[in-house]
Amino acid sequence: MFKEVFKEFPRQDKNLRKWDSPVIADLDKDGHLDLLINDHGFSVQVQWNNDGKFTKPYDIIMGDLHGISVGDIDKDKNLEIIMSRGGGSGSNARNSKLYRVTKNRNFIELGDFKEPLVMMRGRTVAFIDGDNDGNLDLLNFAFPNANKKKKSENYIYKNNGDGELILHSTLPPIKADGQKTLVTDFNGDNIFDIILYGNGELKAYKGNGDLTYIDVSKIVFPESIEEVTGIVEIDFDNDGDFDLYITRGKDFKKGETFYDKETKIFGFYTKRGEFQFDDLEVGDVLNIENFQSQWPNNNTYFIGESSYNYKFDGETHSGKNIRLVNSDALGFQDNANYNEKKGWYIGYVGNRKWRIAGFLWAPATGIVHGVTDYPQEKHPEGLTDILLENKGKKFKDVTKEFGLSRKEHTTAVSVADFDNNGFQDLLVVKRGDLIKANESIVYLNLKGSGFKTLLNHYIISTELGAIGMAVETFDYNQDGKVDVILGNERGKWHLFKNASPETKNHTYITIEVGNSKTKNTSALGAIIEVQSCGNTQIKRIGSTGASYSLSHNTFAHFGLSNCSSADVKVTWTNGEIEKKKISTLNRKVKIGN
Questions:
Q1: Which pairing describes strands 107-110 and 122-128: parallel, antiparallel, or unpaired?
Q2: Once rounded to an integer, what is the mean pLDDT over residues 346-369?
């Protein structure tokens, strides 16, 4: 079971937009995993880990930031951080930003390369050794710009060995938000492959070993797969290859509403154009919670018949709570030209009813309390997530066979051995419905024979008006039990400590992977294989379920059930190998430099 912690994890007590999962890395090389968190359109922040207690968030860079990746691209033993910057919906194309972080926790902004990274509407970045030469290359993918006339903006940069990233090749162009990325090796040739998702069909690109890729989607997938929201690699059956777990769901549609008659809570989602909800019967006072509307309509509210402009004190980026009394909002503007005077229109229209309408650009959400009644809307049925078993040359759909046929709108997934039994479990985040607390799904692995749903785990986010979005797992306090950090779009960050009781039958080891001893190859992308009591487990350093980012967690956690020893093998991306036999009495072991 899990327990949300607050003292160890100070956070902004604001409901903010998010972008992707937190990025995890020991940035200052002090042996404790730090966090990079991205409140979309506001800032990227660091939370330093001081022996299991995080500092308050510290701003690194402000503005519209997207994917983040961490790695030592010049092998100077300091980590570089690349942050992909948004492009103002195409009006402000920019290139990714690079920083170097030092052991004394300073961030040094780095200038452009000799040939600057391409200007774009940035989305995905990932440092990978795509050609197995021991140097970290770069995937740098963009939301396609209409002005490019369908020219590919999925750029691949080669590291020249000195930390200079040089444009080398591209992947085929994609449509809209189709640049979500999983870096994996689905054919077991020790060359990175790429899976793209987020728009249309799931795409698989086989790596050739020279930073070029071939589309093999129709060969490796059993069928066309769409509506994908997240993917993670997992060797669920411990057979030595990486399988895939795929989350699926639909986004809210424009004008979609939710209502709970018991709690009298109404929630809404709208975007891109004119809207008007049915009048809400709430009485003399209108109470709106976590009202979110971004630029350019974040501070444009026209109240009552006269349409006077409602002004907020302080910043308007985070969710706002609004209380309007009917006497201050009487009537509604006749023949309002929403298209000419864009924004929100709110007014008391009599008989205990309020009207909310307007014309917006960016997605907007909110919660209204005390609504007496509202027509129940029929919502799209949830989708089934997919478990694909790796059969060497092709994946096989084993979802039903392994007890994973639940229908939900899910948005993210992470892998960890929560109960230390030697088999990897799954944590899945639901989209939610705005008007209720959002409880995640935990699937415990039944030693490779199936999964069962864990009840009463307490990984629940309670803020209303939020959308489940991102999750990551790591042992933040080094107690041998894997913890959870979860982020809600238009909500808050949450840290859940694994509070499961200690048991002698579920031991563990943590392998810290350093650079290779001969060629100083980065730990990022290295494969760790652990054999214990006839059971074999594999993990890849840096691999997570993040959609646009790549972590640099060099601490690999393995549950060992009740085994007292294990054989460990680490294979770096350039082919170097190091082996070690360890006792579980020594639960933390470092391999490499």
A1: unpaired
A2: 96
